Amino acid sequence: MMPVGWIADSGQRYGGHAYNDGLAEARAHRVPVIVPACHQRWVDDEVTFTFLSPCGQPFTDSANDVNENSLVVLVQYRTLRALFMGDAGFQSEERLLNQGVDLYADILKVGHHGSAYSSSGAFIEAVHPRIAIVSVGRHNLFGHPAPSTLETLRVAGTSIFRTDQCGAVTITTGAAAKFMVETMLSCAAGFH
């Protein structure tokens, strides 16, 4: 079992079993659940976590509010930047773009499993990722990732790694801005 020091949460309540089971486990193991403030930064050694979303009033006007209110975190180690979008989609992306946040990231964990409602052209242009990781289950019932999302990434010249094809994706880095991508399954980097 991996030790957990704290869990960051958006603060929005949700009825999903996995979410509530996770909160129950956190309580049982006395792991604090923290709701970070907008643009709050945490620094540990040389790693900086900056919470970019949610900011402002939570989204409450659509069936995707739980997804749109996902935590969005920029993780930086020296000059390497990675942007984790959670399940955020177009509404969150637009809000981030309107805030004028520096979204550039070498690595993008694509929002909402690469659904057709995430990764707009304007957002991908602002992030300009070299690597995109799409966390998605094999044979999922939602059709993720969407061909339109993959095409947006492809047009941006981003190398795409999908967990349904590559298994776990591990990225390691050292003192330089270089990084190495390893996958659990044999998977060529490319435009999957």
| Alpha plus pi helix count | 6
Could you tell me the number of beta strands?
11
- Give the helix level as a range of percent: 10-25%
CATH superfamily of the largest domain: Ribonuclease Z/Hydroxyacylglutathione hydrolase-like
Q: Structural class, please? A: alpha/beta
**What's the N-to-C terminus distance?**
33 Å
Counting structural domains, the number is: 2
Strands ordered across the widest β-sheet: 3-4-5-6-7-8-9
Task: Describe this protein's structure.
- The protein has 192 residues and is of the alpha/beta class.
- It folds into 2 domains: 1-35, no CATH class; 37-183, Ribonuclease Z/Hydroxyacylglutathione hydrolase-like (Metallo-beta-lactamase, Chain A), CATH 3.60.15.10.
- The chain has helices at 17-28, 65-68, 90-99, 121-127, 147-155, 163-166, and strands spanning 7-8, 33-34, 41-44, 47-53, 72-77, 80-84, 107-109, 131-134, 159-162, 169-173, 179-183.
- The strands form 3 sheets. Strands 3-4-5-6-7-8-9 form a 7-stranded mixed sheet. Strands 1-2 form a two-stranded parallel sheet. It has a two-stranded antiparallel sheet with strand order 10-11.
- Helix 5 links the parallel strand 8 and strand 9.
- The chain is globular and about 40 Å long.
Question: Mind sketching the topology for me?
Answer:
Elements: E1 7-8, H1 17-28, E2 33-34, E3 41-44, E4 47-53, H2 65-68, E5 72-77, E6 80-84, H3 90-99, E7 107-109, H4 121-127, E8 131-134, H5 147-155, E9 159-162, H6 163-166, E10 169-173, E11 179-183
Parallel strand pairs: 1-2, 6-7, 7-8, 8-9
Antiparallel strand pairs: 3-4, 4-5, 5-6, 10-11
